[in-house]
């Protein structure tokens, strides 16, 4: 995925030699450096609940095809893998009816984290477009902006 630019360079999960510590150290370093240089930092921490279960299949298929060029048999294979899945709940001998799953990626699948990263790729594009820094570990993302003070509007000691 890295060689085809499908993996975000600031995603520390699912990669060799990267960890939660990698993400924390990067964000901490950038913010500490900014504060040492009399700048302000605004940090937004995003933690998506059940992120892997919220992946909309149609959005994912469109993103794979139009943003990443996955077409033909490869796209058909992914569609057959994700579409027409059902689930039911069983408590004792009582079972619910099957319901169709239009969202989510199967648990335990090696594709699960890769497909999530592709699904979440617009976060990268939005942050870059607006000149914001960010770093992710799985579905936890820290978006931050370093602000250079102009006058004393950024001096928190006067607040």
TrEMBL record:
Q: Which domain of life is it from?
A: Eukaryota
Domain annotation Reverse transcriptase: ranges: 1-159
| Pfam families, alphabetized | RVT_1 (PF00078)
- Cited InterPro entries: RT_dom
PROSITE patterns assigned: RT_POL (PS50878)
Provide the protein name: Reverse transcriptase domain-containing protein
Organism of origin: Mytilus coruscus
């Amino acid at each position: 995925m890295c060689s085809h630019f499908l993996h975000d360079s600031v995603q520390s999960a699912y990669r060799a030699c990267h960890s939660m510590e990698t993400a924390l150290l990067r964000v901490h370093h950038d913010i500490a450096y900014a504060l040492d240089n009399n700048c302000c930092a605004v940090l937004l921490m995003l933690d998506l609940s059940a992120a892997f279960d919220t992946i909309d299949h149609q959005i994912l298929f469109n993103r794979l095809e139009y943003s990443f060029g996955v077409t033909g048999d490869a796209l058909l294979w992914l569609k057959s893998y994700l579409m027409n899945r059902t689930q039911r709940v069983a408590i004792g001998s009582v079972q619910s009816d099957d319901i169709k799953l239009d969202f989510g990626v199967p648990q335990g699948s090696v594709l699960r984290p890769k497909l999530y990263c592709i699904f979440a790729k617009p976060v990268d594009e939005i942050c870059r477009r607006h000149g914001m820094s960010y770093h992710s570990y799985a579905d936890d993302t820290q978006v931050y902006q370093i602000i250079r003070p102009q006058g004393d509007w950024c001096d928190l000691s006067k607040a």
